[in-house]
Amino acid sequence: MTQKISEDNPPKVKVGFVGLGPIGQALAANALKAGFQAAVYDLSEARMRDPALSGSVAMRSPVEVGRWADVIQVSVKDDDQLEAALAADHGILGGARPGAVVAVHSTVRPGTILRLNESAAARGVGLLDAPVSGGVQGVLTGRLCFMVGGDERWLDVCRPVFAASAGAIVHMGPLGTGATAKLVQQAIFAMNKQSAYEGFQLATRAGLELERFVEALHASAGQSYSADIWRTWWHKASADGGASESWGGPDIRSLDLALEHADQCQLSLPTLGSARSLLRGDRAKQDI
Questions:
Q1: What is the pTM of this model?
Q2: For the domain with range 14-174, which CATH number is right: 3.40.50.720, 3.40.50.970, 3.90.79.10, 3.40.309.10?
Q3: pLDDT band at residue 123, thresholds of 50, 70 and 90?
Q4: d(Cα 39, Cα 106) in Å, to the nearest integer?
């Protein structure tokens, strides 16, 4: 997949991507379509060879990505993978030049971002927590929401890159506020799903014709994104054998982090705890 980059029309910013899951791969593909030079790295060589990334440079390590790129977008699974990807000895920060910016799109603890910033700042490297909402479909349609925490001068560098996939880029405030916003957004999303779950249980038991009820609900004060597409989620979850991430909602880990953060804020969120149980499939399954 590796191709030589033309020097005839060099782009303003060279963009690196570490982590090529569905979101990371789609972000990289959009950057290429927008005309950016792109370098990619993933533990899976097959992901780096995907046709959607044709024209990118396949790197052998996060260090190489850091050494090559001006902006490095990171989309890995969790805090542990993020720390490994940025590690000063064998990760992005081992190669990144002063003035480069690392944008973290993963859903992680705000404290992890703040801790990693100590190493980044010591090297003159900018760090942004820039988690996203909208899923793969949001990337493909250019409607992804970026919730960004960190110094606005670093965001100004990244903004043209984010714009290749964004419907909204919201600067939340200081470093860590983007990660916090994502956890709160996931919490609200999960609680909305729980309300839709219980409401549709009642509608079904009460004998309402669901398609008509959905139409009425959409035009009423009870309307929500979760309610609008509940049946799509439900049928996919049923086909998968029960509650799962395929519902299109927040995963268990993000809700665990949200509840952990609430504990740190000395706040009880019983509805969120119940929603987490629902996502785990602890509630009785209903044929909705």
A1: 0.84
A2: 3.40.50.720
A3: very high
A4: 19
